[in-house]
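Researcher: We're teaching a course module on how sequence relates to structure. For the next exercise, students receive a sequence and then see the predicted structure as tokens, so they can try to spot secondary structure elements on their own. Here is the exercise chain.
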Amino acid sequence: MSVDTITKWDSFNHMKLVLTLEEQFNVTFQAEQTVEMLSYPLVKIALSGHGILFNA
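Model: And here is the predicted structure for the students to work with:
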């Protein structure tokens, strides 16, 4: 899942995703992180930087 494979992934929906992640996980992303989160694996990496870890 990435910006390249999801047709509805535009800048507006990207910001909705970022805001929802911040709310759900009680974190605040830096501006650099928000523009780098262009795929599911990159979202997981950004969250791991805030101590949110996922099982394989």
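Model: If you want an answer key for the exercise: Residues 11-25 form the longest helix (15 residues). The chain has three helices and no strands.
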